[in-house]
Amino acid sequence: MPRLFRWMAAAVLAVGCTLAAAQAAPRPEVIAGGLVHPWAVAFLAEGRYLVSERPGRLRVVEPDGRVGPPLEGVPPVVAAGQGGLLDVVLDSGHARNRQLYFCFAEPGPGGNSTALARARLAPDRSRLEQVEVIFRQEPKVASQLHFGCRIAEAPDGNLFLALGERYSRMQDAQRLDTHHGKLVRLTKDGAPAPGNPFAGRPGALPQIWSLGHRNPQGLAFGADGRLWMHEHGPQGGDELNLPQPGRNHGWPVITYGENYGGGPIGEGLTAREGLEQPLHHWTPSIAPSGLAVLASDRYGAGWLGSLFVGSLKFGELRRLQVRDGRVTEDVVLRGLGRVRDVREGPDGLLYLLTDGPQGRLLRLRP
After folding, report:
1. CA 99, CA 293: separation in Å to the nearest integer?
2. How many CB atoms sit inside 10 A of residue 94's CB?
3. Counting Cβ atoms within 10 Å, is residue 122 exposed (0-12), middle (13-18) or buried (19+)?
4. Active-site annotation holds for 146
5. For the chain, first and last CA: distance in Å?
6. 178, 138 Cβ separation under 8 angstroms
7. What's the pLDDT at 40?
8. Taking every pair of C-alpha atoms in the chain, what is the biggest distance, in angstroms?
9. Using an 8 Å Cβ cutoff, are 352 and 364 in contact?
10. Burial 202-225, CB ≥16 within 10 A → b, else e
């Protein structure tokens, strides 16, 4: 076992708690390297992986770690700043229909915005077929920041898409006539899902599920059907939330963060009546990215149901235990690199992507 990974596996710090003696640190194992700013991983049949790279490429990684050539059929993306080809998820019926969804920074009149596309993976895994953009965030603006872009399929088959407020348009997060700073709920055709809370309200976009978000970078369902979401705060105030229909999560009216360089945002409020409080927040910021709710007991019964959150800022993985509506443990596995994505694989193990020009796909062994 290389010296680096011996150190990584041992470097566990419990914040506000200690790990049980039986709960040893998992061992990071490199599956593949040489990935260019990888952003998301999905799990194909026969032990293969589908990985998105932010510059605008999808690649298949073989079980032995060989990285395939870029797939054909990816539409043009804005690969600048925080933009590019971002999240990718497989349809729940992928084994039967080969369908998948991906979101990306799409160019267009006025600048760019986050778009959601669906496609089919060719039988030989060389290209995307029947590519169709089914949703576009409106309006497009000239910005390279805060695309959000996490996708989750609900148990009922509808899709959730988390959208950033594009940084320069942060006030839009409080408006119902734009998709900026919103969580939207869609059918698999991209139409507003039936039962959305603002459907039929004059001036409101019917796709909106919740509002007042800043830059969401994690979105995942737990085994109990609850939807979890986290988002970046400004120099503090990264948030973990349980978004509910029609709820307002407050940005930028309330926040635990502050302006870059110091000073309050707006009135400097952390709470206001009618606005949701985060379930948990990180101040100072950890720059969270990726989110998994562990449904397996491969790491022991004590980790079953834990939330796992990557940190871009500190190069670590956080394990959160939630009891009675609050986070009771926030445990850190250090030394992994800039963790961009966290997913639970079909084998019940956790898989990570590290962000960088030489990004890696890692598996955490119990």
Report:
1. 23
2. 18
3. middle
4. yes
5. 15
6. yes
7. 99
8. 62
9. yes
10. eebbbbbbbbbbbbbbbbbbbeee
- Torsion angle defined by CA atoms of residues 340, 343, 349 and 350, in that order, rounded to the nearest 10 degrees: 20
| Digit-coded pLDDT (tens) for 269-319 | 999 999 999 999 999 999 999 999 999 999 999 999 999 999 999 999 999
Helices marked H in 162-314: none
Alpha helices of the chain — where are they, by DSSP H? 3-10, 94-97
CA distance 82 to 68: 24
Q: Do the beta carbons of residue 312 and residue 339 sit within 8 Å?
A: yes
Supply 270's token pair: 């952390």
- The amino acid at residue 23 is Q
Query: Is the CB of residue 243 less than 8 Å from the CB of residue 237?
Result: no
How far apart are alpha carbons 27 and 98 in whole angstroms?
32
- Over residues 308-332, the pLDDT tens digits come to 999 999 999 999 999 998 999 999 9
Closest CA to 115 of 156, 148, 73: 148
Q: Which two tokens mark 10?
A: 């041992």
The catalytic residue among 37, 94, 146, 281 is 146
The residue written with tokens 């409101």 in the block is 204
What is the pTM (predicted TM-score) of this model?
0.94
Q: Which residues contact 186 (CB under 8 A, 6 or more apart)?
A: 116, 134, 135, 158, 159, 160, 161, 192, 193, 207
Q: Write out the two tokens for 314.
A: 């500190």
All domains in the chain, ordered by first residue: 3-365 (2.120.10.30)
- pLDDT for 23 equals 59
